[in-house]
Write a structure and sequence with these properties.
The chain is α/β, with parallel strands linked by helices. The chain has helices spanning about 15-25, 155-170, 185-195, 215-225, 245-260, 265-270, 290-300, 305-320, 330-335, 355-360, 385, 390-400, and strands spanning about 45, 50, 55-60, 60-70, 80, 110, 115, 120-125, 175-180, 200-205, 340-345, 375. Helices cover about 30% and strands about 10% of the residues. The strands form three sheets. An eight-stranded mixed sheet has the order 1-4-8-5-9-10-11-12, sandwiched between helices. The protein has a two-stranded antiparallel sheet with strand order 2-3. The radius of gyration is 21 Å and the shape is globular.
C-alpha cells in the first residue's frame, strides 16, 4: 500500500554537501536525515498533535516509514517491526542513496524469508524522537529552527502512542504480529499492554520488562559524555560549520555501548591481546586491536546518527517500566492478551536471559512454554542481528501460531 508523501517531498534533492561529508573526511554536524536529503524508500505521514507522558507537547508529528509486501483486503496480514536504539525504518533492502546501510534485518524480511513478504505486509517506522525522518531533535519546529535543546523528553510509552497514531493513519486497526528486538522489545511490550485489542501476536527479543539501575548507570555515562563535548552547545549545534559537531563524544558513547552489545567471550576469542597492525600495543602510542575495532564502530556511527537523538533514546529507555502506574510488572504482564513469544540470548550482558524468563513468568499465553526461548550464541546482545537461522526459526514459529 503506497501512500503519497507529504509536502516535504518537493524539497528532496539528489545529494547534499552534508551527505558527502558523511563518507569523506570528518563526520557531518549531524548524521540525521534532513529535509533536502534523498528519501530512499522512506514514506512520510503526519499523524497530528501529541501530549507527552511527563509533560510537553508536540504540535505536529511526522513519521517516516517503509513497507514491504501487500496489505490484503481485510487488513489481517500486517506485521509491525519495531526497531532498536540506533535502528530506523530501513529494516530490509539494500544500501542505497538515502540509506547508509543495508536493512538491519534484511535476512529476516522478504519473499520466502521468515517474515515472508509474499504473505505479510511488513511495516517499520522510525520512532518518535528519532533522526531518520520522524519528528525528533534534528527536525524543524514551526519557527523554522531545529528543535535541538527544546525537544521534550519522550518515554517508551510516548513512542508507542505515536506509533499507534501512525497505525491508525495507515488504516490498520489490528496487527497480525508486533515484533521488537532490544528497545523495540520494550515498545512491543507497551503495544500489547496499551492497545491489547490491536495486537494478535507479540514477539519480544532480548528486552527487559524494566530498565535496571545497572543499565541506567551505563546510559547516564554515555549521556554525560555527549553533553560534555565543547561542540554540543547544550544541544543547539546544528548551525555549526561542516567539520565541527559533537561527533567526537558521540563516537566515544558508541564505543561504550558496543562493549555491552557483544560478549566477553567473543572479544577475548576474536581479539585477545593482539596489537593493531602487528605492532606491540605496550608503550607510548601502542594500541590493542580491540581499541581499533571500537574506534571503527564509533566513527562509522557518527555518519548516520544524531547526538541529541542518542540522548533522547537513552532517556526513553531509562523510562521503561511496564509496571509503572499499573500495579507492578506482574499485573501489567497479566493484562497482555496476545499470543506471545519471548526470546533471549544466553551470552547477552546488556539484558540478561533472566530478564526474559521474568517476562514469560507473568504472561497468560506463551507459545513456547514456561520459559523464554534461549538462543545459544557467542555474540551477545547483537545476536538478534547475527544469528539468522536461530532467530528466523522463532519468527516463523510465532507467525504460524
Amino acid at each position: 500500500m503506497d501512500r503519497a508523501r507529504d509536502n516535504d517531498s518537493d524539497l528532496f534533492s539528489p545529494v547534499t554537501d552534508r551527505m558527502i561529508a558523511r563518507v569523506a573526511g570528518k563526520p557531518p554536524v549531524t548524521g540525521a536525515w534532513l529535509v533536502g536529503d534523498p528519501p530512499g524508500r522512506r514514506q512520510f505521514v503526519h499523524v497530528g498533535k501529541q501530549d507527552l507522558e511527563f509533560g510537553g507537547h508536540l504540535d505536529c508529528v511526522r513519521v517516516a516509514y517503509e513497507t514491504w509486501g501487500e496489505l490484503n483486503a481485510d487488513h489481517s496480514n500486517a506485521v509491525l517491526v519495531l526497531h532498536a536504539l540506533t535502528g530506523d525504518s530501513h529494516v530490509a533492502g539494500v544500501r542505497e542513496l538515502g540509506h547508509h546501510t543495508a536493512g538491519w534485518w534484511a535476512d529476516q524480511i522478504g519473499p520466502g524469508r521468515p517474515i515472508d513478504t509474499d504473505r505479510f505486509y511488513v511495516v517499520c517506522a522510525n520512532v518518535l524522537g528519532g533522526c531518520q525522518g520522524t519528528t525528533g531533535p534534528s527536525t524543524m519546529r514551526p519557527s523554522g529552527q531545529p528543535w535541538g535543546s527544546q525537544f521534550p523528553y519522550v518515554s517508551i510509552r510516548d513512542i508507542v502512542h505515536a506509533s499507534h497514531n501512525f497505525s491508525t493513519t495507515l488504516g490498520i486497526d489490528r496487527w497480525h504480529t508486533v515484533i521488537g528486538p532490544s528497545m523495540g522489545g520494550m515498545q512491543a511490550l507497551e503495544w500489547a499492554i496499551m492497545y491489547p485489542d490491536d495486537v494478535e501476536r507479540l514477539v519480544v527479543i532480548a528486552a527487559p520488562a524494566v530498565t535496571s539501575a545497572d543499565r541506567i548507570a551505563v546510559n547516564s555515562v554515555q549521556v554525560d559524555m555527549i553533553r560534555s563535548d565543547p561542540d554540543y552547545l547544550g544541544g543547539d549545534y546544528y548551525d555549526l560549520p561542516e567539520g565541527r559537531g559533537p561527533w567526537h563524544s558521540l563516537a566515544l558513547a558508541r564505543r561504550v555501548a558496543v562493549t555491552s552489545y557483544r560478549s566477553a567471550e567473543e572479544f577475548n576469542t576474536r581479539f585477545g591481546r593482539s596489537a593493531q597492525s602487528g605492532v606491540s600495543p605496550l608503550g607510548k602510542g601502542g594500541r590493542f586491536a580491540i581499541e581499533s575495532y571500537l574506534d571503527f564502530h564509533g566513527n562509522k556511527f557518527t555518519r548516520r546518527f544524531d547526538a541529541n537523538t542518542y540522548i533522547t533514546m537513552l532517556e526513553a529507555m531509562n523510562s521503561h517500566d511496564i509496571g509503572r502506574d499499573r500495579g507492578g510488572v506482574v499485573e501489567a504482564l497479566g493484562s497482555i492478551t496476545a499470543k506471545s513469544l519471548v526470546v533471549g540470548i544466553d551470552s547477552d550482558r546488556l539484558y540478561g536471559i533472566d530478564e526474559q524468563h521474568a517476562i514469560v513468568a507473568g504472561l497468560r499465553t506463551h507459545i513456547a512454554g514456561d520459559e523464554a526461548v534461549v538462543v545459544h550464541s557467542p555474540y551477545g546482545h547483537d545476536s538478534f542481528l547475527i544469528e539468522r537461522e536461530a532467530i528466523g526459526a522463532q519468527l516463523e514459529r510465532i507467525l504460524a501460531a
